[in-house]
Sequence to fold (395 residues):
Amino acid sequence: MPSAQVSAGVPDEIADSLVSRFHDTVGREPVGCFVAPGRVNLIGEHLDYNDGKCLPMALPHATYAALAPRDDDRVNLTSLQEEEPWQGRLGALGPGHAEGWAAYVAGVAWALQEDGLDIPGLDIVVDSRVPVGAGLSSSAALECSVAVGLCALIGLELDHDLRRRLVSACMRAEREVAGAPTGGMDQTIALLAEREHALLLDCRDWSTEQVPWDPSAHGLELLVIDTRAQHSHSDGGYESRRNDCEEAARSLGVDTLREVDDTSAALESLSDTRIRRRARHVFTEMARVEAAVDLLRRSEYESLGQVFTSSHASLRDDFEVSCPELDLAVDTATEEGALGARMTGGGFGGSAIALVPGDRLDTVGEAIVQAYRSRGWEEPGLLPANPGDGARRLR
Ligand code: GLA
Fold:
């Protein structure tokens, strides 16, 4: 694998070193060290807020949080990836009080307070192996690592019901405090992921089903390509796609695009061409999710790859959330022998995934790096990704 490889690290080693950094920074031992993963979505893009289904999996790349309660009402947050710590007070954690990375952490503490939990003053130190701005959900990993830590501090058992409750709290933190109107897929996978599985999530009723997914057992690798092209969910592009989908639903007289039965008739009736293309992506992507899950269950990976590549074309041409860096990663991967490839996550930069035969992994990775170099672009990050575990306690 080329030098561009981004390592997930060894969780136990990262936890040990974070515990000792906590000790150096705060001057005492943390109560525990908690972890939550980044994610990629295999298929079902921009469907969560349309009540559709998606199929995310957890990455081995994760965010780690060490925590201890305080006797006063102070909240002190430190990130090993950031220069400035953040300090606040328990009564002032909600909207408008914290910005940037700290908003995600303070926002979770606030959302859990709003949910009726008695959150104490806090010292928190976080460390992350999820690249930021790569569309791999570093924000949900941060929120969820802190959320499971806060629950442990106050003695709650991390069962399935609590995990579900934390999904809602983390979504609220992201929407209301961090100001990113995301759809819930990221927090759900960070909290409910199981190793060697993808999670089929139906965003209409939030029901979930674990789908076995272990590419390396079938001689395949899922390669994640971080294009390093800037990506953010709070800068308008994401929200405008949401608005377009809502407008399509309104024109069709339904609450969400999921409710449409006759999609061909619906598309014909939409007169605005942009809105029609947005809806077409949503409808065709819904069908692709069904096809992909079926193919995955039958281990038909060649066809699964083709479905990935069609999804990319739809996101590029109809939903218009791709960018040259994503297109180049996808095109190069498929030219070099990937079974299929697509952008993943919100788009406008961020990451792509490619389903690659194990013996083509280095060739595909090298070709993508070369293609970027020859255009004078920043080198992409490469993350070979086996489906990992969900949020949990490590120490
Ligand atoms: C981002 C959001 C998710 C989802 C994807 C697109 O990752 O955080 O909620 O909408 O974009 O599928």
In short: Residues 41, 45-46, 48-49, 182-186, 233, 345-346 surround alpha-D-galactopyranose (CB under 6 Å). The CA atoms of residues 167 and 228 lie 28 Å apart. The radius of gyration is 21 Å.
